[in-house]
């Protein structure tokens, strides 16, 4: 028995007598090795598609040659140009059986045939044509006859088990699904092929197709225009995004042959072997280009051509030099394009990334919300999904997932459905809860090596007691831009880049950030000093830059800097002039300003400068259009209990825009926290949480949680392990043994920091000397001066008992006031006699000229 692994067969034209017989001719030795009998069905894989044939020995019994007839092929099958060499692995034996039922579509030249011939007669004609023919599901049978207007027969469904292959006999029941024209059939095939090929990458697909199609099919036109054809395209994108799949789809669409080079496979052990292998692949590409358009695809090119260094990397340097020489030698050849793919473009040798070699670079970013929805629709097309599955909701919670991650997510959801179903029943449908379980297992690949990846349990706002004002401000900064992007675009608003939470320890600053990340479905990255600081020079700055790179790759995302005062510090500290903290702070400021944005961090779709007038079909899809505009930023959230230790450059607008004070819980907040902490505890009827809340002044949320735990432990200690309820006396005893973590000195320093961070009052004047009408006239006068920054409004404090009215000039775009009900309202409709709550980004600005104008008006 001859060995078939690695054996190549030369393709030669089919014999005249074998045409339209579905026969393939191979040597008898190969038939014996593949365990084939005469007439056994085999599936032949070619660059132009697949073909179903029956195996027959060659008449001359010669080995090493291959012939086949293209009677049963896949749609859009493209003939192969000679000479071509097949691998024996491309011939796959199949187990064909006699079919009981088959469903077909008949493709005709015109619709007149369907009107002229009755359906039962068409059924008989098709049955006679297919009798004795092996068919494959989703394949077409060519009808080479001048006696009928039929072009081909499309096999829709074959009832033959998992192989989808079978023999049509006289007993086979044939069902005629439809009779369609050739134009309609071509349209359906093209639509199905494009949907399968691109799956959410329409923009990149079109760009790559244009770059390949022009030099391959219109080289003379480009030459007449006096321009050279682009000979190289470099695909850049993270792993699993679909670079290889995209190349194969585009090459199949343009009808070119594909030759693939895997970087690690080219490298040899002996000197000169790598260059020899590379020259052999290029020679194969040259020969293929003589017979038709050809694409040479170099996958993982960064492993083949790293940056050239000293003598220690001489073998790699020779490979790079050889590739440069070979690419320069292909400039004058037509019908040839080189495509490289990498996920590390910075490690490539710079000589490759210039015009004349890799002329263009196509960036494939992490899929956006709309692209993730398209990918999920394609992946779940053949999955039995329940009506509870919401693909748009899945696309929203899979931020940072690439195509490979989404494929793994669907596969894991199917496994969860199997594991959670009874053993004696079949899985009828995949529920939404199965996808939720799969999300806990499958993480985005772009974050698997991230230093800030944190595995945390999702937290809701209701699980945090009190702090209603702080929750509202966080929702405005994080949730609102994502849930209501249309409103933000209409008002010209951009969400803040950064938020600073400051307050005493144990007051739920970290928990608030986790709740914001959970509610907004953002990728959450948390960084501490242990993650960043390194004994090696430059490692801390590099780690922080890498963190922002990964956060941008999976945007929208939240980067949480806990205890930011220990991470960064202040550059004004002269005791440590060249500390690592100051250098890390410098990197953070640069990243916040967006200067260090790398090329491969670009998104897959362009930002929309204005919203299209053509609205999608549903309201959900309409909102997704706005999500594509807004939700691509990285939000920085920092937390500290020492805001005075931070650098002033970090606190300015444009970096940490919103500064939010997280106060210690008051009576109402303490009562809410106690109710949450004792929600799952069996309390006795004598327990009074109101009394406990009144006695826990200066207790933080963490202190109150610890108090409840101590009371439960005291109950077990006093009443042994059989205790069933917690009494009031144990709560009081635990209170006596506990002391608050907050002190009056801490509260005084935080109150001072809060006053410093408050919006600056430009001018104060008694109401007796300046009535509301005069104030309104003054504001109207200021609004007419176009050189002024827009005036938002003013706050009337008379109703609250204050003796002055404060005028706030705030640096922000919208001309609205947002009151306590969070409803946007034009400032002209605001009643200045009633107290209003301005919710806006904190700004500090002193208009000296306007201050003098106020003084002159109050004389």
UniProtKB/TrEMBL annotation:
The keyword Membrane applies. Keywords: ATP-binding, Membrane, Nucleotide-binding, Transmembrane, Transmembrane helix. Pfam families: AAA, AAA_lid_3, B12D. GO terms for cellular component: cytosol; nucleus; VCP-NPL4-UFD1 AAA ATPase complex. SUPFAM superfamilies: P-loop containing nucleoside triphosphate hydrolases. GO terms for biological process: autophagosome maturation; mitotic spindle disassembly; retrograde protein transport, ER to cytosol. Residues 229-368, 495-666 form the AAA+ ATPase domain. GO terms for molecular function: ATP binding; ATP hydrolysis activity; polyubiquitin modification-dependent protein binding. InterPro entries: AAA+_ATPase, AAA_ATPase_domain, AAA_lid_3, ATPase_AAA_core, ATPase_AAA_CS, B12D, P-loop_NTPase. The chain crosses the membrane at residues 788-811. It comes from the Eukaryota. The keyword Nucleotide-binding applies. This is AAA+ ATPase domain-containing protein. It comes from Alosa alosa.
């Amino acid at each position: 028995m001859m060995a078939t692994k690695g054996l190549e067969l030369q393709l030669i034209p089919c014999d005249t007598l074998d045409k339209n017989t579905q026969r393939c001719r191979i040597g008898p030795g190969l038939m014996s090795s593949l365990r084939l009998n005469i007439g056994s069905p085999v599936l032949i894989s070619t660059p132009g598609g697949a073909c179903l044939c029956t195996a027959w020995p060659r008449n001359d019994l010669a080995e090493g040659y291959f012939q086949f007839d293209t009677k049963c092929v896949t749609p859009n099958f493209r003939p192969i140009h000679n000479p071509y060499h097949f691998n024996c692995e491309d011939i796959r034996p199949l187990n064909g059986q006699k079919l009981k039922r088959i469903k077909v579509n008949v493709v005709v030249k015109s619709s007149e045939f369907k009107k002229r011939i009755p359906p039962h007669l068409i059924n008989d004609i098709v049955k006679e044509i297919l009798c004795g023919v092996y068919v494959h599901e989703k394949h077409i049978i060519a009808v080479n006859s001048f006696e009928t207007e039929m072009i081909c027969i499309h096999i829709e469904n074959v009832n033959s088990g998992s192989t989808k292959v079978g023999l049509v006999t006289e007993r086979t029941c044939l069902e005629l699904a439809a009779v369609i024209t050739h134009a309609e059939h071509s349209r359906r095939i093209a639509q199905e092929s494009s949907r399968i090929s691109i799956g959410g990458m329409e923009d990149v697909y079109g760009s790559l197709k244009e770059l390949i199609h022009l030099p391959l099919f219109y080289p003379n036109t480009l030459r007449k225009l006096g321009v050279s054809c682009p000979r190289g395209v470099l695909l850049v994108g993270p792993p699993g995004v679909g670079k290889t799949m995209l190349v194969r789809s585009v090459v199949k669409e343009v009808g070119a042959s594909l030759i693939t080079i895997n970087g690690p496979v080219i490298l040899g052990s002996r000197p000169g072997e790598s260059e020899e292998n590379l020259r052999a692949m290029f020679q194969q590409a040259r020969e293929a280009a003589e017979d038709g358009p050809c694409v040479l695809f170099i996958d993982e090119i960064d492993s083949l051509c790293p940056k050239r260094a000293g003598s220690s990397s001489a073998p790699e340097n020779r490979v790079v030099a050889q590739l440069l020489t070979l690419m320069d030698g292909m400039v004058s050849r037509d019908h040839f394009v080189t495509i490289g793919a990498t996920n590390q473009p910075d490690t490539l040798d710079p000589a490759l990334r210039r015009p004349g070699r890799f002329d263009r670079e196509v960036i494939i970013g992490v899929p956006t919300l709309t692209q993730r929805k398209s990918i999920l629709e394609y992946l779940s097309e053949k999955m039995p999904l329940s009506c509870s599955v919401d693909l748009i909701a899945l696309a929203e919670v899979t931020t940072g997932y690439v195509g490979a991650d989404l494929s793994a997510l669907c596969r894991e959801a199917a496994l969860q459905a199997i594991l959670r179903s009874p053993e004696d029943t079949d899985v009828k449908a995949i529920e939404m809860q199965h996808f939720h379980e799969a999300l806990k297992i499958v993480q985005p690949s772009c974050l698997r090596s991230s230093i800030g990846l944190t595995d945390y349990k999702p937290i809701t706002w209701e699980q945090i007691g009190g702090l209603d004002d702080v929750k509202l401000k966080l929702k405005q900064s994080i949730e609102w831009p994502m849930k209501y992007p249309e409103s933000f675009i209409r008002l010209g608003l951009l969400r803040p880049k950064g938020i600073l939470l400051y307050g005493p320890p144990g007051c739920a600053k970290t928990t608030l950030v986790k709740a914001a990340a959970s509610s907004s479905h953002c990728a959450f990255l948390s960084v501490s000093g242990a993650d960043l600081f390194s004994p090696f020079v430059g490692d801390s700055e590099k780690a922080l830059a890498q963190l922002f790179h990964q956060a941008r790759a999976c945007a929208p995302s939240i980067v949480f800097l806990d205890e930011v005062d220990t991470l960064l510090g202040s550059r004004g500290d002269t005791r440590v002039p060249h500390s690592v903290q100051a250098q890390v702070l410098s990197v953070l400021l640069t990243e916040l300003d967006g200067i260090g944005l790398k090329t491969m961090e670009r998104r897959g779709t362009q930002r929309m400068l204005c919203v299209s007038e053509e609205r999608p079909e549903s309201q959900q899809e309409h909102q997704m259009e706005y999500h594509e505009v807004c939700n691509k930023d990285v939000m920085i959230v920092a937390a500290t209990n020492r805001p005075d230790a931070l650098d002033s450059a970090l606190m300015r607008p444009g970096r940490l825009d919103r500064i939010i004070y997280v106060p210690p819980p008051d009576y109402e907040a303490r009562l809410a926290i106690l109710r949450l902490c004792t929600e799952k505890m069996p309390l006795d009827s004598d327990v009074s949480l109101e009394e406990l809340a009144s006695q826990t002044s200066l207790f933080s949320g963490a202190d109150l949680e610890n108090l409840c735990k101590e009371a439960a432990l005291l109950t077990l200690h006093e009443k042994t392990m059989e205790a069933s309820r917690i009494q009031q006396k144990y709560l009081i005893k635990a209170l006596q043994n506990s002391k608050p973590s907050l002190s009056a000195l801490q509260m005084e320093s935080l109150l001072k920091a809060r006053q410093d961070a408050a919006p600056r009052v430009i001018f104060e004047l008694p109401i007796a000397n300046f009535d509301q009408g005069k104030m309104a006239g003054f504001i109207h006068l200021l609004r007419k001066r176009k050189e002024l920054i827009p005036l938002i409004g003013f706050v009337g404090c008379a109703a609250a008992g204050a003796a002055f009215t404060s005028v706030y000039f705030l640096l922000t775009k919208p001309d609205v006031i947002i009151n306590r009900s969070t409803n946007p309202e034009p400032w002209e409709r605001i009643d200045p006699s009633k107290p209003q709550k301005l919710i806006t980004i904190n700004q500090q600005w002193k208009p000296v000229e306007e201050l003098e104008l106020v003084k002159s008006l109050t004389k």
